[in-house]
Amino acid sequence: MPRKRKLLAQLSALQSNSSFPPFDALENLNATPDGDSSPKSSKYFAIEKKNSSQLEDDFFNQPCISLAKSFLGQILVRKLPDGRELWGRIVETEAYLGGEDEASHSKGGKQTQRNAAMFMKPGTLYVYQIYGIYFCVNVSSQGEGAAVLLRSLEPLQGLDAMRELRSASKKGPTKLLKDWQLCNGPSKLCQAFGIDKAFDQRDLTQDAAIWMAPGHDLPGEQDVVATTRIGIGNRGEWAQKPLRFYLRGNKFVSVVDKKKEREMAAMGHFSCS
Question: What's the pTM value of the predicted model, to 2 decimals?
Answer without folding.
Answer: 0.79
